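Question:
Write out your own:
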Amino acid sequence: LVAGGIGGGVGAYIERNGGVVDVALPQAPAEDRPRDPRSIAGIAEAALPGVVTFHVKGGGKEGTGTGFVLDRRGHILTNNHVVEAAASGGDISVTFSGGTTAEAEIVGRDSGYDLAVVRVSGVRGLRPLRLGNSDSVRVGDPVVAIGAPYDLAGTVTSGIISAKERPITAGGGDDGGSDVSYVDAIQTDAPINPGNSGGPLMDGEGRVIGINSAIRAADDETGLGASQGGSIGLGFAIPVNQGKRVAEELINTGRATHPVIGVTLDMRFTGDGARVGVDDGDRPAVTPDGPGDRAGIRAGDVITAVNGARVHNGEELIVKIRAHRPGDRLELTLERDGRERTLRLTLGSASDDR
């Protein structure tokens, strides 16, 4: 009876399940279909060969970062803070997406813009990335970021442009590191983490519109820069128009020019706007015959707008000025003796001491 019961149960199971067979689950076949060039996958596929990962050693420090190829002569653009440790003697190694590794030398760097150009030699098949125009981007536009967060090379993330002309400062820490850099940045929610610095931020056409430079992390009380915390959706990129100008100057002359208005600001001013300092006897607040002097700026003036865009403190004014180049003409709005005035000014160059 027991054997008959067992046999009947097994028979019923076999009948219900179609016999004793190996399970084979359905699956789509492997496909090698091309991706739309404007899709995230298409943009990544085209761009990855032109993106490199940095490994930098020098001065007892080491770190990683990202950069991208500018031309077939071997010039690569990245952030100054990525290569700074090797500036006074050290090693810079760049690794391409295909695995090729090459030593690089610094062509020029500028801490004020947080940009640097290095060059590799003897590497064949370089794939420069196309440069877009950061003046053309709009809030809400889709973007793709490529980099090596935490040394994970070739990481691709996506998001949108969250804001434009976001004044940020980075660097200038208490450890005597980088000078302060001032950036009129593009803000994005594309995940950006430590190691992404220097990598490209690309538009929906696969063109570089920014150089990823800073994040705001959950554990970063100061706001921006070198925190090792992860992204919370606040990433910032240097506009490519500024990056292009600085890169060209670094390649052609080894140094970048800094636009100036020829005044000393009172950075302790707590009111709204950027106040020009007062003469202290050793140095006048407004450089004689400098751009500000020729435009009519006086000591104690409070500058409140540049080309109609409000500035709320001295750092924001510097950011707005740095977004331009020497020789550009600006309209400044300022307050003097309770009255608002508008002045037109032609930017000078820091190399001219004006």
Remarks:
- Residues 40-120 form a domain with the Thrombin, subunit H fold (CATH 2.40.10.10).
- DSSP finds six helices and 19 strands in the chain.
